[in-house]
């Protein structure tokens, strides 16, 4: 397909033509995998689209989807787009007040939910939402007012018999510049904003991203791919359109906690991820070596430490290549089996992937590329590919996408993937565009002489110490989180004399390490002296790599991991710093008591 303007249904149906028959997707629900073949998938899109049309949905209307990943999610999505309506995806973890705001702000006419458990967040509020005229349930409901998915399919099938050309007619009327979706940014502050993305915004990103894949698109044909990131986020959704276009078999997981079992079941060829998964796998692999002894342990850690020297842009040769071959035979091969044994590669986005994890994944024989973008950019701006995998960068821009650095260091972007604006919010839209039409990403970075983009940090995350020194916390956090004993870190220091940190240890790995010293910590673990000593050693190691003003002088251990449900993380697992600062204000202040006293405080 050439690079001129396209609609998303065009891309999807073109892909479906190339599938042949057999499995299209498998969705895990209540622990069971539910399969759908290619022809059923295509038929259900057409019937659901006409069922929505029969319900009164027309071109330009909005239909919201509040459901977990599944083939049904995609059926709804493509059906909505095929009749010229726009969909409004809602995260399965989104709180009720935000759902109410999204439904009202988007003017959603029909609301789709997966089941009663998901609907529970909306049910008490739905009567107040005047725009919603019908609610559809994908998997059944005890509430009689909710219309079953099957009943919409039946309505569509009936209409199709009466008007066999209607679907193709409606689909052909959809234009590339039409609004395809309103994606409400999860945002680390305030209520979410509705990002307006057109068909061509996303379609251009699909086709240009395919040129940057680590393998030829023919290699993807009929391969199994894993989908665990939410389809409500544009990153996974755009990649799923790519999968369909290339003829992949898509497997939708149910629970991130079961990801290891799912990898063994699916045996995927490729998947998209955020850095947290490869980070956790790498730290788990590091700690696993503690179970071995003698020569086996020595070889294991020799191979693990060898990954730290690996550079995908300049792979080892000579004696280095021989070492790598030995490490692969005795160690890396076994690690790859943890991914199902068939995995060839992955793409990481959503946040910065640390150089250590990047080197580790590529060294063990999995091509791991990193990309960069935002919801507002559909989402990819830059991405690495084999031959363009410089450590610490997010690669080079996609075809037809331009980037430059503003005077204050902010990354600016321009291209066919840039959003139309924020829905019903001209003021915020104006704020994120320069006078000459460049989109302000809110990220700080630099472009090297070869065109590779380096991300320093979120512009809003950077802070200035009271000494006048600027700190980019993400860099420090990534270094600390590379430890096998640390799960998450939040660096503190705005208007303070020094940097401190809230640290959530990986208590399961910590306990395994302390067991070697015949020590068993007792709860609360965050107050255990031996655990603190272990974490202090990890902090000291990282401090040696940092500038004096970046070093962590004090830290507090937290007992529980941060969660989306507690409003501490966004649905894409980014830390809500303002929430954390407020929630843990006592712990933060305890690290600066001496500073307060020195300034004449109580």
From TrEMBL:
Report the coiled-coil segments: none
SUPFAM superfamilies under this entry? Acetyl-CoA synthetase-like
- InterPro entries the record matches: AMP-binding, AMP-binding_CS, AMP-dep_synth/lig_dom, ANL_N_sf
Query: Record keywords: Iron included?
Result: no
Q: Which residues form the AMP-dependent synthetase/ligase domain?
A: 32-423
Q: Which GO terms describe its molecular function?
A: ligase activity
In its keyword annotation, does this UniProt entry include Thylakoid?
A: no
Q: Which domain of life is it from?
A: Bacteria
Q: Please name the Pfam families in this protein's record.
A: AMP-binding, AMP-binding_C_3
User: Which keywords label this protein?
Assistant: ATP-binding, Ligase, Nucleotide-binding
Name of this protein: Long-chain fatty acid--CoA ligase
Name its species.
Rhodohalobacter sulfatireducens
